[in-house]
Here is the input.
Amino acid sequence: MTNDDHRRAAMVERDIAGRGITDARVLAAMRAVPREHFVPANLRQRAFDDRPLPIGNAQTISQPYIVALMAQALQLQGDEHVLEIGTGSGYGAAVLARLCRHVDTVERISDLADRARQQLADLGVTNVDVHGGDGTLGWPAAAPFDAIVVTAGGPSVPPALQAQLAPGGRLVMPVGAQHGGQDLLRLTRSGGDDFRTESLCGVAFVPLLGAQGWPEA
Ligand code: SAH
Here is the structure.
């Protein structure tokens, strides 16, 4: 193991397993994905802290604990088709890629989408497609999805995303105020148009901007 691998393993032990994440596949993915490659070079030494970090374009790479919590909440077994809204650095997509069959991820800032696509290619990740666009509308061309995760906070769950969730599927998303706190919700589609909603915890994400999110300035 490299020194970075050791530091990452310590972070997973202390901040992720240590704070109650129990899904062994999620813990293994968090140990394996080199978060230090998804942050700007000058912040690399801070990639092993359980904190969000700036990635440019006024956006952040999420805190590792929250990435793990959301991944666990999706209840992935390995064969799912997953949609992520808010690619950002591509880190969350790289974690999900180890937990399912295929990930489609949508990012509204094309500069970030381009960088994430390049980073994932450099790391040899082949089961993620990065798309540019407004993710509040989902990605209809590849629907339905067994699981959907939104990594930005919206005023409500976009109907387009609910429509693209397969029967039995899980959708995890922060819903609440634009600046400040949101509730992390999990919707489970029981079949037809029935959705069960659970509130998992309080979180603070950057705003989800778009047609079925907050209005763009
Ligand atoms: N999962 C990311 C965290 C990204 S932060 C990571 O691991 O690094 C949230 C991202 O959501 C930002 O990059 C922001 O540009 C993006 N975003 C906000 N609204 C969006 C929308 N409507 N469609 C797609 N992406 C959106």
Summary: The pocket of S-adenosyl-L-homocysteine is lined by residues 59-62, 85-86, 88-89, 91-92, 106-109, 112, 134-136, 151-152, 206, 208-210, 213 (CB under 6 Å). The domain at 66-203 is CATH 3.40.50.150 (Rossmann fold). The mean pLDDT is 97. The helical segments are 3-17, 24-32, 64-73, 91-97, 110-122, 159-163.
